[in-house]
Amino acid sequence: xxxxxxxxxxxxxxxxxxxxxxxxxxxxxxxxxATVQTAMWYVSMQIEEQQARQRYLQQKxxxxxxxxxxxxxxxxxxxxLEQRLGYVEMLQIQRNKTxxxxxxxxxxxxxxxxVDKVRMEGTNFKLSGISSSTAKLAQMxxxxxxxxxxxxxDMHSIVHGSQRFGQSYQSxxxxxxxxxxxxxxxxxxxxxxxxxxxx
Length: 199
What we know:
Low-confidence stretches: 183-199
Shape: rod-shaped
Number of helices: 2
Strand content: 15-25%
CATH topology of the domain at 91-188: Gyrase A, domain 2
């Protein structure tokens, strides 16, 4: 029986397995490195894209903040302008209040009542005069209180037996305030009566 030496064959098989293992290990390392590199590239791209979004959002936020600041300035300017216009309008009303009151008095003072003096102090007016009867004074007081142009009407005094023009009258003192906020026209404050007059 011949003796067969299997040692070289086994050694060759061992070398082949070793080479295959090394090749597989190298391929695995290359694939793992490529996978890691691809994953890092993908993550880097995602980070860059997210940073670009953040830069865009930050730019828009900055623009909106500038727009808001401009809007605040415009609003402040508009408010200041409205205040100035309101002040000018109030001054205009204050300048015209005497004319408005004097135009309204003939519609408010009934026939038989005569105004001697009109005194103005700011928005306050004081009238003094004479009346032929108490009923006429009551009628005038009612018209003053019903007028949208006047407010805080107060009759201070009524003195009977005042002599004027050789006749006996009732002298009176009345005060009121001009209503600057009233939108009523002075001509519609009360019906005009015939023969109304101011002395």
